[in-house]
Design a protein that fits this description.
Layout (H helix, E strand, L loop, with lengths): L1 H14 L1 E3 L3 E2 L7 E9 L8 E9 L3 E12 L2 E15 L4 E8 L12 E7 L5 E8 L5
Antiparallel strand pairs: 1-3, 2-9, 3-4, 4-7, 5-6, 5-8, 8-9
């Protein structure tokens, strides 16, 4: 499993941008701890973006959804929840979540915004969260 994760990270790094200034926006005692974040830029704002979030499970959990929240000056300017196939992880297991999404066009000269990506459990509770600047996507 560790070899697979290492190969995945090498492949992801070759085709994506490794983001080093992300923020862990999860609550104390969250189900997983973020380790790394990779993004794949879209050619323009009309194309889907890709994000790969890697982490380590603190406790056993099952994720089956995600929440995407774009914020500017602390206010939500776009929010989307989506479903994924159930993914179950054991404590101490390393994993990666991959998301592809499209952010609607924003007014010209709107500048960058913060983007939060969260994994959700079957009841919609946040399992963990990462935040980064949208400049890495466009």
């Amino acid at each position: 499993m560790k070899a697979f994760l290492a190969l995945f990270l090498i492949f992801a790094a070759a085709s994506a941008t490794l983001i080093t200034d992300w923020k862990n926006c999860g609550a104390e005692g969250q189900s997983w701890t973020p380790i790394s974040l990779n993004t794949e830029k879209s050619e323009n704002s009309e194309d889907p973006c890709s994000v790969s979030i890697c982490g380590k499970a603190n406790v056993p959990f099952t994720a089956n959804g995600y929440n995407l929240n774009a914020k500017k000056f602390g206010f939500s300017i776009y929010s989307k929840k989506g479903n994924i196939h159930d993914r179950t992880y054991e404590a101490e297991q390393e994993f990666c979540f991959e998301y592809s999404f499209k952010i609607p066009s924003l007014p010209p000269n709107s500048g960058s915004f913060d983007l939060e990506v969260s994994a959700l459990d079957t009841e919609g509770n946040v399992l963990g969260c990462m935040e980064f600047d949208s400049d890495y996507l466009f």
